[in-house]
Write a structure and sequence with these properties.
3 domains, 7-stranded mixed beta sheet, alpha/beta, flat, binds guanosine-5'-triphosphate, 5-stranded mixed beta sheet
Length: 389
């Protein structure tokens, strides 16, 4: 399953964002494994469910909204020089190891300094936080490479030794592959074999960027001044309010409001049941959402998955006419897969045996056979015919 990590300095709101994003939407609260351990949980991307255009609705989605699970990690807060052991030190880097993509959380309200100490809103520049994470991650990676470099350079004297494979091997735990190493070498304009370890910092930065793509959440946006909001938004960050999202999901869970994560707004079914304080709190959130089109929490998860990681959603079925599985359930499964995936890749994703016994696939929309190597499109509903059952 795809893993996203929330990383940033202490007090920028990571845990609040994490709690909000991993609080299962009311309709799917009984999904298994909502919390895996203290800092690893299940969050969801939101997509329109294809069943909305069918005669039979699917029973999985909530009012035509399909939520698909991804893992989310709440990474320990990091401070400058964390790679040397400062603050909680390398703990955060060990968490990041497991991530496919990183959501860097910054305090858009400027109400905490670079080490996370509280201050008045607007007293710090949120954009100063952005290079810190990149630097710490790159220096950590550099530290690993540096340790192995003398040996690697000796081995590189031998013609049969590939420095790309060697480096990828050392960094396999970080999901760094040979192609990443080659691309980073090219981009850094160096020849790895001939480069002294001390000159590998820029290379490490590029390599980290390739292996762990990053998107920025300008969090606590509800507390930020209009000037800071503009500045943070112009930097390309997505504005978020983890606190608002958490409050909305909590209110929805107790049926105080109707809200699906990612909605631009919410409704109150029975105002009479709310206290004046609750009404005032909700109105404040409504004003914020009206101004920003929502809390931004769902948006950042969707963008991390679909834009940073280039994923599409595919729906495997066993019966291409009724779009059901073997038990008659309509569109029960939705898989997140890399853009460019083929029916054969999907077959493997469903089950290794289905992949091994793959015969052919049918596009349920056109009822036509498609080639094993055809490139699938986002939203495709596919029947796989395999020797395996
Ligand atoms: N106004 C506002 N406050 C927030 C928001 N998110 C978090 N906070 C507050 O900011 C403070 C820090 O939030 P946390 O979620 O604990 O921050 P953290 O980054 O996990 O902190 P560490 O665990 O120290 O790394 C708490 O008082 C939160 O209530 C937000 O979106 N808006």
């Amino acid at each position: 399953m795809i893993t996203l990590a929330l990383a940033g300095k202490p007090n920028c709101g990571k845990s609040t964002l994490y709690r909000a994003a991993t609080m299962a939407p009311a309709e799917i609260a009984n999904y298994p494994f909502t919390t895996i351990d203290a800092n690893r949980g299940v969050a969801y991307v939101r997509v329109p469910c294809p069943c909305t255009s069918l005669a039979h609705r699917c029973g999985v989605c909530a009012d035509g909204i399909r939520y698909i699970a991804v893992h989310l990690i709440d990474v320990a807060g990091l401070v400058p020089e964390a790679h040397t052991g400062k603050g909680l030190g390398n703990q955060f880097l060990d968490h990041l190891r497991q991530a496919d993509a990183i959501i860097q959380v910054i305090d858009a309200s400027g109400s905490t300094d670079i080490e996370g100490n509280p201050d008045n809103p607007g007293s710090h520049d949120p954009l100063e936080e952005i290079p810190m994470l990149k630097t710490e991650m790159a220096m950590w990676l550099f530290g690993i490479i540096e340790k192995h470099w003398p040996k690697m350079q000796r081995q590189a004297q031998s013609r049969s030794f590939s420095i790309y494979a060697g480096l990828a091997d050392i960094l396999a735990g970080l999901s760094i592959q040979e192609e990443h190493v080659m691309e980073a070498e090219r981009e850094a304009g160096i020849e790895l074999r001939l480069t002294a370890s001390g000159d590998l910092i820029e290379f490490s930065k590029i390599l980290m960027r390739k292996a762990k793509p990053m998107i920025i959440a300008g969090n606590k946006a509800d507390l930020a001044s209009p000037e800071l909001l503009t500045k943070v938004k112009d930097s390309g960050a997505i504005l978020t309010s983890g606190a608002a999202e958490l409050a909305l999901r909590t209110a929805a869970a107790s049926h105080m409001i109707i809200y699906h994560p990612g909605d631009a707004s919410f409704s109150i079914p029975d105002k009479g049941k709310l206290s004046d304080a609750q009404k005032a709190g909700l109105m404040k959130m409504k004003a914020y959402m009206d101004a920003h089109g929502g809390t931004g929490v769902q948006e950042i998860i969707n963008r991390a998955v679909f834009e940073l990681l280039d994923m599409i959603v595919l729906y495997p079925v066993e019966d291409e006419t009724h779009l059901t599985d073997g038990q008659g359930r309509v569109l029960p499964d939705a898989f997140l897969m890399k853009k460019g995936s083929t029916p054969h890749d999907l077959a493997y994703q469903v089950h290794t045996d289905i992949g091994k016994g793959f015969l052919y696939a049918i596009d349920a929309k056109t009822k036509m056979r498609i080639k094993e190597s055809a490139v699938l499109k986002d939203g495709d509903i596919i029947k796989i015919v395999s020797t395996a059952k």
